[in-house]
Amino acid sequence: MNIPNSSTAPNTNEYAGDEVSAIVLDPGYNTTRAGFAGEDVPKSVCPSFYGQTDSDSGPQYLFGENAIHTPTARLGIKNPWGSDGIVEDWETATKIWEYAITSRLTGTKPTDPAKNGLNDANGDSMEVDIEALENQEKPLEDSPLLMTEPGWNTVKAREKYLEIAMEEWGTPAYYLHKTGTLAAFASGKASGIIIDVGASHTSVTPVLDGMVLRKGVQKSPLAGNFVSNQIRLMFKQSSPEIPLTPHFMVNSKTQVDAGAPSQASMKVFDIPPLDSFRRHEEERVLTEFKESVVEVWPGPGRFSNGTNEEIAKAQPGRPFEMPDGWNQVFGSERFRVAEGLFDPAAALHDADNPIPKADHCIPRLVQQAVSHVDVDARPMLLQNIVVTGGSTLLYKFNDRLNHEINTIYPSTRNKLIAPGPVVERKYAAWIGGSILASLGSFHQLWISKKEYEEHGANIVEKRCR
Amino acid sequence: MASGRDVRDMLGLSVGGDAQKTAVQKRPKTTAPTRRIQGVAREVAALYGERPPPVAIFEEKKAYRAKRQSTGPAKRWVQQSFTNQARIDDLMLKHWRRKPAPQSAITNGEDSAMEDTENMEPFIESNAEFLKYNVEPEMPTFTDEEYDAHLRSSDWSREETDYLFQLVAAFSYRWAVIWDRYDYQPSANSSLAVQEPSINGDSSQALAALPFAPSKTRTLEDLKARFYEISAKLMKLHIPEVQMDADQYAKYEMLAKFDPALERTRKTLASALMNRNMDEVKEEEFLLAELQRINMAANRLDAEREELRSRLEAPVPNQQVAAGLTAFTSSQALQALFQQLFQQDRSKKRASGGAPGRLSLAGSDILATPTSAQHAQIAANRRQSMATLPPPTPIRNLSPQEEIRYNVSTHDRLTSGVTFGSDKLLKMRQAKSNVQTQKIAAALQQLGISDLISIPTARVADVFEGLIGKVGKLLDVRKVREKEEGECRVLESMKARLNGGGGADGAQVDGAADGEKLMKDEIRDSQEDVEDEDEDEDDAAREDDADAYGEPDDVDNDVDADAEGDDEDEDAEGEEDSRAQSVRQPSESMSTRHISAGHKRSASVLSQASTKSSKRVRK
Question: Which of A87, A234, B254, B351 gets the highest tally of CB atoms within 10 A of its CB?
Answer without folding.
Answer: A87
